[in-house]
TrEMBL record:
Protein name, as recorded: Alcohol dehydrogenase
Cofactor: Zn(2+)
UniProt-listed SMART domains: PKS_ER
Alphabetical list of CDD domains matching this protein: threonine_DH_like
All residue ranges annotated as the Enoyl reductase (ER) domain in the record: 8-329
One example GO MF annotation: oxidoreductase activity
Keywords of this entry: Metal-binding, Oxidoreductase, Zinc
InterPro entries: ADH-like_C, ADH-like_N, ADH_Zn_CS, ER, GroES-like_sf, NAD(P)-bd_dom_sf, Zn_alcohol_dh
Organism name: Secundilactobacillus mixtipabuli
Superkingdom, natural source: Bacteria
Family, similarity comment: Belongs to the zinc-containing alcohol dehydrogenase family.
PANTHER family: L-THREONINE 3-DEHYDROGENASE (PTHR43401)
Length: 332
């Protein structure tokens, strides 16, 4: 079978390799689609993602495919099932796992990060992280359930209720998923701030965004109950805190550089009684994400801008492919 291997920092090669064999508790997946995201950029450039990747490794942590084999102890799956895979595998034994916060696991491993992922024709995953895809969810959309689950986890960390007004800062794939997820979780008004007018308008016309702001020229009002920061730059992190009204919650979802800081008025945090909430990966969120897609409350297909093949992945990771909103790799 063909696979794309990260052999070192900024080094990728397509090679022929023996098909893996699933262990007793594992499922062999014939990959159909694998999404590419910022984590892959980080791993390609030798930086950590949710965990460290040690080359040689096959990336691809946003996967969908067809079950091609099941280990002897696997129940509930058979060859031919359409599936998506939660990449994150928790140890179940550490302090964080035993206090119902598995995403903070001290021994996190992940498909496409610490073990071979979906940028190959066949990969294996423990059955506990494999989920069935309903007929109404396409295999292409199935490859976006992992990032959608990150947004769902962020949303679930907040206290949401319909009267709240939310602002999403960031018009990328994640920001646009938040727009839909917040509405699905009952927020009555969602506004969007970004820098790409076409994307802002698209979300206003198709996804029910009330007000749009281009941060390069528009003033953002300070009257939001919920603010999602989905860019990861110091200026947008500052803007997120500044856009709050009293009692607001700010979700710091964007990933900054490891040594990055931003300025915050701590008196404002006190006086407005703000909650500043971090968000890391996507524990226990796959079922909700699948339900959001199956019910049509979240629609990802219009946000997928590129369908690539394995040979084009390195170009994406070298930033040679312009105007990517979301890229998925079709594995034939
Ligand atoms: N917390 C998590 O678990 C998690 C999971 C996935 C992604 N992320 C992070 O979320 C962030 C967004 O991810 P993405 O995939 O959408 O990235 P992306 O690169 O597709 O989108 C970033 C967007 O930010 C916009 N932007 C840039 N500067 C801006 C500014 N000054 N004001 C407003 N918008 C601006 C860009 O137009 C772009 O569309 C990244 O930092 C990513 O690493 C976090
Ligand atoms: Zn990802
Ligand atoms: Zn653990």
């Amino acid at each position: 079978m063909e696979r794309l291997v990260l052999t070192g920092t900024k080094k990728m090669t397509i090679e022929d390799h023996e098909q893996p064999t699933p262990k007793a508790d594992e499922i062999l997946v014939n990959t159909k689609f694998a999404g590419i995201c910022g984590t892959d950029h980080a791993l390609y450039n030798g930086l950590p993602g949710s965990a460290n990747a040690v080359p040689p490794i096959v990336l691809g942590h946003e996967n969908s495919g067809i079950v091609a084999g099941v280990g002897s102890a696997v129940e509930g799956f058979k060859v031919g099932d359409r599936v998506t895979v939660d990449p994150n595998i928790y140890c179940g034994k550490c302090f964080y796992c035993r206090t119902a916060r598995p995403e903070l696991c001290d021994h996190l491993s992940a498909v496409g990060v610490t073990r071979d992922g979906g940028l190959e024709e066949y990969f294996t995953a423990p059955s506990e992280v494999v989920y069935h895809l309903p007929e109404t969810v396409s295999l292409k959309a199935g490859a976006t359930i992992e990032p959608l689950s990150c947004a769902v986890h962020g949303v679930q960390l907040l206290n949401l209720t319909p009267y709240q007004k939310a602002l999403v800062i960031g018009d990328g794939f994640m920001g646009q998923l938040f727009v839909q997820a917040l509405q699905a979780y009952g927020i009555h008004q969602v506004d969007l701030a970004g820098i790409i007018d076409t994307k802002l308008k698209f979300n206003q016309e198709h996804f029910g965004v009330t007000n749009i702001f281009n941060t390069t020229r528009d003033e953002i009002p300070s009257d939001y109950d919920v603010v999602i920061e989905a860019v990861g730059l110091p200026q947008t992190q500052e803007a997120a805190v500044e856009a709050t009204r009293k009692g607001a919650q700010v979700l710091m979802f964007g990933v900054g550089k490891p040594d990055q800081h931003f300025q915050m008025n701590t008196y404002e945090v006190y006086q407005k009684q703000l909650t500043i909430q971090g968000s890391f990966i996507n524990p226990n969120a796959f079922e909700d994400s699948i339900a959001l897609l199956a019910s049509g409350k979240v629609d990802v297909e219009p946000l997928i801008s590129h369908e690539l093949n394995l040979a084009q992945v390195a170009d994406v990771l070298e930033d040679k492919v312009p105007n990517i909103s979301k890229a998925v790799v079709k594995i034939d």
